[in-house]
# Entry
Amino acid sequence: MRINNTAPKGLEDVIIGSSSLTLIDGRAGRLSYRGYDISDLAENATFEETAYLLLYGNLPNVQELRQLKKNLSDEREIPTQLVELLKGFPNDASAMDILRTSISALSIYDPDLHDYSPDAMLRRAIRILSKMTTMIAGYERIRNGAEVIPPRADLDHASNFLYMMRGQVPEPVVARIYDKCLIIHADHELNASTFAARVTASTLSDVYSAVTSAIGALKGPLHGGANEGVMEMLEEIKVPENAEAYLKKVFSEKKRVMGFGHRVYKTIDPRATILKSLSKELATKNGGEWFEISYKLEEIMRAEKNLSPNVDFYAASVYHMLGIPTYLFTPIFAASRVTGWTAHILEQYSDNRLIRPRADYLGHPPRKYIPLTQRK
Ligand code: COA
# Structure
């Protein structure tokens, strides 16, 4: 029997359910979390306030924010078994494979994994959000043959991550730029990884399994993996004068340019606008031509292909100028997006129905089994 409500390939523009988390207006190029415009949040809120907003539904008051910060810092330590696990991985493994495996392993050490009450779910979301940062920084230290640096309870989420990675408390201006990156990557409606998380949650599997599914989906170069591709491209181009020839070659080979185009935005991605100004700010502070090369590419892509940058484009030069190695770009995207993943997972649990679509079968018509010896 053929079912006559086939969705377009890639589920483009198909509404598969409702959500109170994030609104994208792809035509106007606007994005808001629970009613607050992303540029308002990036300008005025901290990542912790944004995380509270996504997980609890409203911006926190002073007391609520203090409590969330305490909960996050209380959860920063990771089990020693996980540090040992990180030490055992080969140095050339993909950082996203390591993150996916480590988050999956973390579930084994969760103190209340089988408590499915809403409070326990929220605790677990905060636990994963906090520990993921420690795991990424720890992995970076181990990969470089350095001692793992324990977290500091007195630092905010962004500063603590940069501190654990480098052993130095970052300048406030640098920490605030990273904090803004965390805010603007925190959620994005039903992108592929969030959808993957919701599908897994809809089977009533646990939060770790849902987050692990999401990390797997984020890894791909058509999703979160694009930011690493952008940096590789910038490094290959080297100076703004080479941008045009580089793109000509890519166009002639009919390849995609990482960091451009979007399924939902028909104009510039508002996150790219914010990241562009952060990239410019860092370029003014640090020197170098990463912003100039990026800007040149943006101009040519708009003129030649009518394509605008997406979130991954200017994120690459920003992360690079923050001193983050390219192989960590997608893991730190995950470290922010986990806020949205867990908020969506909680929303899915709160009004669940198994997500189980159908496929239009285009295979062979019915046929009879042929014994092995009679097959040609
Ligand atoms: N470089 C070159 N051409 C691109 C392009 C890119 N980055 N993104 C889209 N296009 C072109 C496609 O070739 C296609 O052209 P065609 O109709 O002549 O074949 C057209 O634009 C539509 O692309 P399509 O793949 O149908 O759009 P989509 O909605 O399925 O894909 C993306 C969206 C994000 C996967 C796509 O834009 C892409 O591959 N971008 C690069 C990867 C990236 O930056 N991902 C991060 C997303 S936040």
Remarks:
- The radius of gyration is 22 Å.
- The first strand starts at residue 22 and ends at 25.
- The chain has 16 helices and three strands.
- Residues 70-218+335-350 form a domain with the Citrate Synthase; domain 1 fold (CATH 1.10.580.10).
